[in-house]
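Task: sequence design from structure.
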C-alpha cells in the first residue's frame, strides 16, 4: 500500500462499505481490521475525502489516512514475514508484555520515522536501519 490516490479511494471505499453495513472483500479485510483497531476514526471516515487530512482526535492531531496506511504496511510485513525481522520484533515485544496493538504501534513508529526521513532526502527506504532499530526496540514494564 502506498500514499497515493488509489489508497485514499480504497480506504474511503472500505470505510463507506463498513458504515453502510456492506460486506468487505477479502482483499480489503486488512484495512477493515485496522479500522476495527481504531474506532475513534469512525466519525472521521464519514467525512469522505476530508478524512485524508489531519484531525484532532482525543486531544491529539492524527491523520487517519496516514495512520491506516502505516498500519496496513506493518501488518502485512508481520503476516507475510517480509522482511523476516518484523514479526520477530513484534513477537518479542508481545513476549515482553506489550499489548498486541501497542506492539504494532511501536513498530509503526520506527517504520514511519524512517519512511519520512528517507522520503524527505529522496532516498530509498533503509531496511538495514529498520532492522537495527527494531532489534534495539524493547518494552520494559513499569512497576
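Answer:
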Amino acid at each position: 500500500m502506498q500514499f497515493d490516490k488509489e489508497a485514499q479511494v480504497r480506504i474511503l471505499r472500505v470505510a463507506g462499505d463498513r458504515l453502510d453495513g456492506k460486506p468487505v472483500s477479502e482483499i480489503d479485510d486488512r484495512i477493515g481490521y485496522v479500522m476495527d483497531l481504531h474506532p475513534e476514526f469512525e466519525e472521521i471516515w464519514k467525512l469522505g475525502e476530508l478524512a485524508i487530512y489531519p484531525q484532532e482526535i482525543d486531544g491529539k492531531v492524527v491523520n487517519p489516512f496516514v495512520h491506516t496506511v502505516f498500519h496496513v504496511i506493518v501488518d502485512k510485513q508481520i503476516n507475510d514475514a517480509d522482511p523476516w525481522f518484523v514479526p520477530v520484533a513484534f513477537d518479542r515485544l508481545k513476549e515482553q508484555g506489550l499489548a498486541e496493538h501497542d506492539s504494532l504501534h511501536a513498530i509503526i513508529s520506527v517504520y514511519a520515522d524512517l519512511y519520512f526521513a528517507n522520503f524527505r532526502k529522496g532516498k530509498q527506504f533503509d531496511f538495514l536501519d529498520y532492522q537495527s532499530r527494531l532489534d534495539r526496540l524493547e518494552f520494559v514494564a513499569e512497576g
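The mean pLDDT is 90.
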